[in-house]
Known about the structure:
Distance between the termini of chain A: 18 Å
Largest sheet of chain B: 4 strands, antiparallel
Radius of gyration of chain A: 17 Å
Shape of chain A: globular
Number of strands of chain B: 4
Structural class of chain A: alpha/beta
Helix content of chain B: over 70%
Oligomer: heterodimer
Radius of gyration of chain B: 31 Å
Number of helices of chain A: 7
Distance between the termini of chain B: 25 Å
Amino acid sequence: MENISFKVERGDFASIVGKSGAGKTTLFKMLLREEEPTEGNIFFDGRNVQEMPARESCVLRRKIGTIFQDYKLLPSKTIYENIAYAMEVTGAPDGEIKRYVPEALEMVGMVKQAMHFPHEVSGGEKQRTAIARALIHDPDVILADEPTGDLDPYHTREVLKLLLKLNKEGTTVLLATHDKEVVNDLGRRVITLKDGKIVSDSKQGRFIL
Amino acid sequence: MKEKIIISFKRAVKLGWKNFHREGGISFVAVFVLTIAITLAAFLFLLTGVADVLIKDIEQKADVTVDFRIAVPEERILEVRDEISEKFEINGINYVSREDARTQFIKRFGDRDAVMESLEEVGNPFPASLNIRAEDPYVYSQITDFLEEEHEDDVYGIDFANREEVIEGIFAVTESARRGGIILGIVASIIAVLLVYNTVKLTIYGLREEIKVMRLVGSSNIFLQGSFVIQGMIVGLVAALASFFILFLLGFLIPQSYNITLEVNLQQYFLEMMPFVFVLQLGIGIILGMFSSLIATGKYLK
């Protein structure tokens, strides 16, 4: 990535679009502090992420719900446990976990598969699990990296509806995608990346690549 | 805050236990390796103890008897006894009077009529003696020299000269056994620790992607490491139980016949030591499992 500067306000919904290798995932990795920029700074809630002590990285990550392109589910845990884990690490009481996890499973249509392990479910089901895990602890920001990549049109619409609903409730959403239809249907802010650079940033953008 | 710490601890225990029984194959290998290590350590510990008891028993048997001339009065012999006790570092010195010697002889050969008849005829041919036991075999030669120089007229004979080689041989062997035991113990402990650490390291290497994901979803290093440390402790606990069971069975397999030749009961010693050995096994198992997990996971948390 090179010479990039943009700001996302609290409560925004922004799509980051670009071809594969444009830098969408790298951008998310830097926001999560999984990778460090060689130059420049990233600010989250007014704080310079690069200057945060390493032990605070987990606090930053708990404020962000991430839907990873490759799902990143824990293979030794069931679907239920994968979702619950995101709450467990925050120290949430057992009662809350028992109440919210079934709700999240219901929301993404994974109640029947709750006790299955990731290797026992399809790609689309893994993606829905990853979505539930990203939302379960009520994060301030959602980073969704190609969240509809493995979903059928019905579930794609459901996921987008869900992201819009959360955004309406105040959650900031950053959606990385190369799905033209999804971006055009949303009619929200679009930041277009090409070869690691921003080529356009429009408030009610369309897919231009 | 306190409540959150308790919740996190409970969860770490739960996650550690779940990981242990879900990753059955990996857990089995880790338990197996740790069981070997603990059994080796406990066995060496017991062996050192047994060897020590045996060595002491053998060394006790390596004594020297000083026979006095018949004419030497008891008071004189007791003076010599006190002199030896003061001058030399010895474990014990016993005075055996002529009468005691005769009684001992009768006890031993009382059932042989011919021998007893001969004894009746000659009266009491046995000399009074001093029986000396020392920790260091060199003390025996010093005592011999002392008696030959200072009490040549009183002493009839010392059985050290003809047993010198045997006694020194026994002490040389027991000393080598002690040294060998210590070296073997150190080498075996190092091998055991390396074996366990590398097994745990390989296990956690296989989980490095999972650790990465756990951190990305917001797990703190303490929470993450906690569950792996608990898992390591469970492995250690199970291995300690398995190792205890193995040694317990071995304890019963020690043949009683060994006890005939020695004054110590090996099986009894083995079984008496078991509670202490169990605590030792538990300690080694849990500490090894815990620290191996701590060090191995620490590598992926930077």
